[in-house]
Amino acid sequence: EVQLQASGGGLVQSGGSLRLSCAASGFTFGNYAMTWDRQAPGKGLERVSGIGSSGESTSYADAVKGRFTISRDNAKNTLYLQMNNLRPSDTAVYYCSRPSGSIRGQGTLVTVSS
Predict the structure, then answer these.
(1) Percentage of the chain with pLDDT > 70?
(2) For residues 49 and 70, is the Cβ–Cβ distance under 8 A?
(3) pLDDT digits over 30-84, tens only?
(4) DSSP the chain
(5) How far apart are CA 15 and CA 29, in angstroms?
(6) C-alpha to C-alpha distance for 23 and 65, rounded to whole angstroms
């Protein structure tokens, strides 16, 4: 069974940092590009960042460019999102996703207070 389990969310003050992790299982993690998506309260799903299967390429939404860093450890089947200089507008449920097959795991809530 393909599973993606995100963790690391929480409550942080504006300007603070958090590191999200996503543990993958049930498939060969290193063969797939992965993404982080988020859904803010009352809004639609937004693509935050993506990374190629070996980590050789990354992409970021304009809203997080320069503040967030996506990475992966294929030996540990884990995807990461380092989030710095957080803003209240970053408040959302964050999901890790495998675009191939439209797989999305359980999210983790990030709340940024002003």
Answers:
(1) 100
(2) yes
(3) 999 999 999 999 999 999 999 999 999 999 999 999 999 999 999 999 999 999 9
(4) --EEEEE--EEEETT--EEEEEEEESS-GGGS-EEEEEE-TTS-EEEEEEE-TTS--EEE-TTTTTTEEEEEETTTTEEEEEE-S--GGG-EEEEEEETTTTEE-B-EEEEEE-
(5) 32
(6) 24
